[in-house]
Each structure stands twice: as structure tokens, then as C-alpha cells.
Design goal:
Helix content is 77%, strand content 0%. The protein is mainly alpha-helical. It has one domain. The longest helix has 30 residues. The two termini are 21 Å apart.
Length: 273
């Protein structure tokens, strides 16, 4: 992988990880159109470490508060003593579904599910479900009103994002809207819930690639991680500001258009599945 590819893929990862348009779909279609090799699920997972760093920096106050409450609850043997400690524990519980499904379906996720047919279908189907959530959601709740049940529902939705093209932020924001969260808090909780899953996935894949990191791939990964982190921070800022006064219809239309475009490319042999 050249440095140009690493930079481009880092920008793509940073732009699309948090916006509900699927980073995996873009990390498949951009190399396909450019004539590059598929970077693979492992490369995608490792570059998420950069976007994870962006989450830590952007939400540093929230994370410090939740982390402190979590540790105090452990020391006092009272996990649900405060609202913050409860939320911290619930985020842990909400991570279980994606961990279980990720381990059970690891092989198919990294191979068959990366087909552009699967990705295009996921883009379109999730767009339609998100459109329904926009119509049905009342947007009258914020994070402080969330319950364990809410978190588990969003956690299951996060697990569905293992299907490439679905988008982790897309599935979790959609679930949040169905639960009547306002758009900004649905996105905010999506980012916080993603921290454990992205951390574990990135570190696992980094370990899997450890023997290749000494060569050019290691340099390319490092560049891609740094670029994705910088762009990812800007993407978080954009999305939260955007959702304060706008709906998700822009992303819905974009997902449908991209999914249809991929199908056209496949039908005309411009790209291969």
C-alpha cells in the first residue's frame, strides 16, 4: 500500500466513521474505483483507532466523568449508585451484543459480507429504516433519560452494523430515534457506546497484523490512523452541529443514491463484487 492510498483511505475513514453513511462501504468502493486492492476488514478496524482517538479527545470531559463514576462504583460495590455510574455500566452491557456477534460471525464478516452486493443492499435498506425512524421518532428525550433497556436495544442495533454498509453510527442513531431521543443526543450516545467496541476491535486486529507492521504496511497504517483521527474529529464536530438544526434526510438520500450507484457499477462491470 502506497502512502497516497493510506492518506486517501484515512480521509475516507475519518469522514465516514461517524456520519451515518458507512465507512466500510466507502473503504470498499473508493479502492475499487481507483483500481486499488481491497484494504480488508483488518485494515479498516485498525484505522478506526484514529477515529477512536478523535472520540476520546472530543468527548474527553464526558469520558472522564463516566470513567470516574465507573471506578467509584466498583470501589463502593454500588454499580448503579449515580446516574453517571449507571450509564457507564450500561455502555458496557450495550457492548456485549456486538462482541458476541463479532466473534460468532468473524469469518463471514471479513469475507462474504464484504461483497459490494451486500454493501449496496445494506446502504439502501438502512436508509429506508432511518427514514422511518425520522418519521416515527418524537425526539423528546435526551441521554439523561436513558434506561438499561434503551442501551441494550441500541447495543443490538450496533451489532447489526457488523454487516458492511449498515454503518455503526447509522444503526445506533436509527435505534436512538426510534426510542424518541433527540438527534444530537442519539448521535452523542452512539459515539460513546462505540468506544469499547472500536477499542477492542482495533486492538484485536492490530495484534492479528503484528507480523506485518515492521514493513511498509506498518507505515501506511500509522499514516492512515493519524489522518483518520484528524478528519474524524472534524466529522464529529460537523455532525453534532448539523443535527442540532437538521434532520438525517441528507444522509438517507445519499445512502440510497450511493447504493444504487454501486449496483449500476456492478451491472456495467465498472467494479467487481
Amino acid at each position: 500500500m502506497s502512502l497516497l492510498e493510506a492518506i486517501v483511505l484515512g480521509i475516507v475513514q475519518g469522514l465516514t466513521e461517524f456520519i451515518p453513511i458507512s465507512s466500510t462501504a466507502h473503504l470498499r468502493i473508493v479502492p475499487a474505483l481507483a483500481g486499488w486492492e481491497d484494504p480488508g476488514a483488518a485494515f479498516t478496524a485498525v484505522t478506526q483507532i484514529g477515529t477512536l482517538a478523535a472520540v476520546f479527545v472530543y468527548f474527553r470531559k464526558d469520558i472522564a466523568s463516566l470513567g470516574g463514576a465507573f471506578l467509584r462504583s466498583l470501589l463502593r460495590y454500588r454499580p448503579f449508585e449515580t446516574r453517571e455510574s449507571s450509564l457507564a455500566w450500561w455502555i458496557m452491557f450495550g457492548t456485549i451484543p456486538i462482541g458476541v456477534f463479532g466473534l460468532l460471525f468473524k469469518d463471514v464478516i471479513e469475507t462474504g459480507f464484504r461483497s459490494l452486493y451486500v454493501i449496496s443492499g445494506s446502504l439502501i435498506v438502512l436508509a429506508l429504516i432511518l427514514a422511518l425512524a425520522e418519521r416515527a421518532g418524537k425526539r423528546v428525550r435526551d441521554i439523561s433519560s436513558m434506561t438499561l433497556t434503551d442501551t441494550l436495544i441500541i447495543g443490538v442495533a450496533q451489532a447489526l452494523a457488523l454487516i458492511p454498509g449498515s454503518s455503526r453510527s447509522g444503526t445506533t442513531i436509527t435505534a436512538g430515534l426510534f426510542l424518541n431521543l433527540n438527534r444530537e443526543d442519539a448521535a452523542r450516545f452512539s459515539f460513546l457506546l462505540g468506544i469499547p467496541a472500536i477499542t477492542l476491535s482495533g486492538l484485536y486486529q492490530l495484534w492479528e497484523l503484528r507480523t506485518a507492521l515492521a514493513g511498509d504496511l506498518g507505515v501506511a497504517l500509522l499514516v492512515s490512523v493519524v489522518v483518520s483521527g484528524i478528519v474524524g474529529y472534524l466529522s464529529i464536530e460537523f455532525l453534532l452541529r448539523y443535527l442540532r438544526s437538521h434532520s438525517t434526510w441528507l444522509f438517507i438520500v445519499y445512502r440510497i443514491a450511493l447504493g444504487a450507484l454501486i449496483l449500476i457499477f456492478l451491472a456495467t462491470d465498472i467494479v467487481q463484487p
